[in-house]
Amino acid sequence: MRPATRAIITATAISGTLDLLSAFLFSAVKGVGPMRVLQSVAAGPFGDPMLQGTSAPVALAGLIVHYALMTVMVSVFVIAALNLPLILRRPLLAGLLYGGVLYLVMYWIVLPARWPDLFPRTGLWDVGNALFSHLVCVGLPMGHVVARALRRPLA
């Protein structure tokens, strides 16, 4: 397997799972279960009817959407890392910075465009858990995994 492909698959799996687990945890504190979190993800591209009732197929759609988005995010990072040597020299810093960019894009552009009445959320709790998720659960592991995969010699 090519190093870039390995980087994308591994970083998507790790960062995507950590991000999802953090969403489950922070939502559980508010009394919201994992099924509802995944339904909300599905509602992004497929509309508000995804929020009606509880449905395993809708939750599965949310899971697929989540990992598809994470694949795109990781792929952009991998392309950047292949073209900007600084990313591979300072992968944790690059990952943190990229996680911050992802936070800004998701919480200040994408989510407000989809749900203008709900976003942006500026409360300390909301900003804190979003930053934690994007910096620690997404950016740091993404930087680490991508750097390891791209530095490893071909087998």
Summarize the structure in short.
With 155 residues, the protein is an all-alpha fold.
Question: Mind explaining what this structure looks like?
Answer:
The chain is an all-alpha fold and 155 residues long. It has one domain (3-151). The chain contains 6 helices and no strands. The chain has helices at residues 3-29, 34-46, 56-83, 85-89, 91-114, 124-151. Helix 1 (3-29) crosses helix 3, helix 2 (34-46) packs across helix 3 and helix 3 (56-83) packs across helix 6 (124-151). The longest helix has 28 residues, at 56-83. The chain is globular. The N and C termini lie close together (8 Å). The model has no long low-confidence stretch (mean pLDDT 95).
